[in-house]
Amino acid sequence: MNTDLAKERVQDLLRETDNAIRANPIPAVLTALGVGFALGLATRLLEIPERKPELLRDALDDLRALLSTSAKRGQRAYADSAEAVRDAVEQAVESARELDIDPVAKWWQRLRS
C-alpha cells in the first residue's frame, strides 16, 4: 500500500512541476541553468587535483629539447667542417713546401710591393 501511495504522490509532484514550468518557462530555465552550474562547480571542486600542465614550462622544455638536438648537430657539423678546413690548409702547406714556396714569405712580398 505504501508503494501505491508513493506512486500517486510522485505523479502529483510531476504534474505540479509540469504546470509550474509551463506557467513560468523563463525562471524554470534559469533555475535549471543555475542548478547545473552549481553542480558543475561542486564536482570540479571535489575532484582530486592533478598536476596542471604549465603551458610556458612545457613549451620551454620542448624548445630546449629541440635546440639541444640542433646544437648537437651543429657542433658535429662544425667539427667536421673545421676538420675539413684544417686538412685543406695542411694539404696546401704541403703542396707549397713541395714547390719550394713559403706561402707566408710570398704573402709578405706581395704586401710590401
Describe this structure in words.
- The protein is an all-alpha fold and 113 residues long.
- The chain has two domains: 1-50; 53-113.
- The chain has four helices and no strands.
- It has helices at 2-23, 25-46, 55-98, 103-112.
- α1 packs across α2.
- The protein is rod-shaped, with a radius of gyration of 42 Å.
In short:
87% of the residues lie in helices and 0% in strands. The chain has 113 residues and is mainly alpha-helical.
Give the helices and strands, then pairings:
Layout lengths: L1 H22 L1 H22 L8 H44 L4 H10 L1
Order of helices and strands: HHHH
Instruction: List the uncertain runs.
Output: none
Based on helices, strands and strand pairing, what is the structural class?
mainly alpha
Shape: rod-shaped
Would you count the extended β strands for me? 0
Number of helices: 4
Share in helix: over 70%
Indicate the proportion of strand residues: under 5%
Mean pLDDT: 77
Question: Mind summarizing the main beta sheet?
Answer: none
Calculate the terminal CA-CA distance, rounded to whole Å. Answer: 126 Å
Number of domains: 2
List the main descriptive attributes of the protein structure presented here:
113 residues; mainly alpha; single chain
